[in-house]
């Protein structure tokens, strides 16, 4: 460990210099701090909006929360996960886009179908509700 | 036949029946792990969809506004956010081959992760104690499934963190360990991304009603 390791690691360092340039990008101190600061801001705003009840309209607040959440996810993707269109020859991005499409179908489809199911249910009186099995 | 064969040998053109080992950039592991994360993302998407459908069915039981303690959730969120940046610092130390600093930041990350899971377990225990367990209503069933699945992931990440700390302590920052650290980095940041969805959609929009 004591004598062997440093030369060993130096060799890896030399190796590292020319071989990893095309891999999934590594962050820098600056990029991590930038991502962190942006995340803190993007987290604090929605919590403040809800806890201090800043906006009267719940719908508008909900829209803002979801928009800020979406922006924060993109911030995390760029600054923490180092996503870009070049890593792995673009395949990570392809997989991500495919997943987003699937997620959108699963979410919107579930909500759409279940909303219609709910809307088309036979109306129930409280008495019927009480006698449910 | 033999003459021909020797000719080949003499000219140095003998066909080789093995493949030269090519230089692996170790990129395939990262892509494979990314694909795993994407499939994990689908699990969470389905649980989010379930919560979106069932999240308002209280069965005359408690609603999110009655149950959720937003300051606690805010602290919990900050724990996970801190753990994300401390793991980033650990990865920066990995790049500089600073073994001790790497282990230090990994330990800090694990501590933040443990704080997160502990706060979540405290919240769960509190809710179950109040009679708002997963069997109370459809809302609570989907809530415990979604948030519990995320908590299980974080717990696995913490165990993975300790295993990797032992690996790094024993073998140093060899390429194998660097690869594992990269995978855990993606896993850990991915869990933070999922948590953005949880606190926005489940907690904040739940309380909004």
Automatic annotation (TrEMBL), chain A:
It comes from the Bacteria. It is a multi-pass membrane protein. Keywords: Cell membrane, Electron transport, Membrane, Oxidoreductase, Transmembrane, Transmembrane helix, Transport. Residues 1-23 are annotated as: Disordered. One of its GO terms (biological process) is electron transport coupled proton transport. One of its GO terms (molecular function) is cytochrome bo3 ubiquinol oxidase activity. InterPro entries: Cyt_c_oxidase_su4_prok, Cyt_o_ubiqinol_oxidase_su4, Cytochrome_c_oxidase_bac_sub4. Pfam families: COX4_pro. The keyword Cell membrane applies. The keyword ATP-binding does not apply. GO terms for cellular component: cytochrome o ubiquinol oxidase complex; plasma membrane. The chain crosses the membrane at residues 32-52, 59-81, 93-114. It is found in: Cell membrane. Heterooctamer of two A chains, two B chains, two C chains and two D chains. Belongs to the cytochrome c oxidase bacterial subunit 4 family. PANTHER family: CYTOCHROME BO(3) UBIQUINOL OXIDASE SUBUNIT 4. Cytochrome bo(3) ubiquinol terminal oxidase is the component of the aerobic respiratory chain of E.coli that predominates when cells are grown at high aeration. Has proton pump activity across the membrane in addition to electron transfer, pumping 2 protons/electron. This is Cytochrome bo(3) ubiquinol oxidase subunit 4. It comes from Sinorhizobium glycinis.
UniProtKB/TrEMBL annotation, chain B:
Its main location: membrane. GO terms for cellular component: plasma membrane. It comes from the Bacteria. Keywords: Cell membrane, Electron transport, Membrane, Oxidoreductase, Transmembrane, Transmembrane helix, Transport. It is found in: Cell membrane. GO terms for biological process: aerobic electron transport chain. It is a multi-pass membrane protein. Residues 1-207 form the Heme-copper oxidase subunit III family profile domain. The chain crosses the membrane at residues 33-55, 67-90, 102-122, 143-166, 186-208. GO terms for molecular function: cytochrome bo3 ubiquinol oxidase activity; cytochrome-c oxidase activity. Belongs to the cytochrome c oxidase subunit 3 family. Heterooctamer of two A chains, two B chains, two C chains and two D chains. Cytochrome bo(3) ubiquinol terminal oxidase is the component of the aerobic respiratory chain of E.coli that predominates when cells are grown at high aeration. Has proton pump activity across the membrane in addition to electron transfer, pumping 2 protons/electron. This is Cytochrome bo(3) ubiquinol oxidase subunit 3. It comes from Sinorhizobium glycinis.
């Amino acid at each position: 460990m004591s004598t062997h390791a440093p030369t060993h690691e130096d060799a890896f360092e030399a190796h590292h210099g020319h071989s990893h340039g095309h891999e999934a990008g590594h962050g820098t101190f600056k990029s991590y701090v930038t991502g962190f600061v942006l995340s803190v801001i993007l987290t604090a705003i929605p919590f403040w909006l809800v806890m201090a009840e800043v906006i009267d309209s719940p719908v508008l607040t909900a829209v803002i929360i979801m928009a800020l959440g979406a922006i924060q996810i993109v911030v995390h993707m760029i600054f923490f996960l180092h996503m870009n269109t070049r890593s792995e020859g673009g395949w990570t991005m392809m997989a991500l886009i495919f997943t987003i499409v699937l997620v959108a179908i699963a979410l919107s489809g579930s909500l759409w179908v279940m909303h219609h199911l709910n809307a088309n249910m036979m109306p129930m009186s409280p008495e019927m509700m009480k006698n449910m099995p | 036949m033999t003459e021909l064969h020797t000719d080949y040998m003499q000219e140095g053109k003998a066909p080789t029946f093995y493949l030269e080992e090519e230089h692996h950039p170790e990129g395939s592991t990262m892509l494979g792990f990314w694909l795993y994360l994407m499939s994990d993302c689908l699990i969470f998407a389905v649980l989010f969809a379930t919560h979106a459908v069932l999240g308002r069915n209280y069965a005359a039981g408690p609603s999110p506004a009655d149950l959720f303690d937003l300051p606690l959730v805010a602290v919990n969120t900050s724990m996970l956010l801190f753990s994300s940046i401390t793991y980033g610092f650990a990865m920066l130390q990995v790049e500089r081959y600073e073994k001790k600093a790497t282990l230090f930041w990994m330990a800090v990350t694990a501590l933040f992760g443990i704080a997160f899971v502990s706060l979540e377990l405290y919240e769960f225990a509190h809710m179950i104690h109040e009679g708002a367990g997963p069997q109370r209503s459809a809302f609570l069933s989907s809530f415990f499934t979604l948030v519990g699945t995320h908590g299980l992931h974080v717990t696995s990440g913490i165990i993975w963190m300790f295993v990797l700390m032992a690996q790094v302590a024993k073998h140093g920052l060899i390429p194998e360990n660097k690869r594992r650290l990269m995978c855990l980095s993606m896993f850990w940041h991915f869990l933070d991304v999922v948590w953005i969805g949880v606190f926005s959609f489940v907690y904040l929009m739940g309380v909004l009603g």
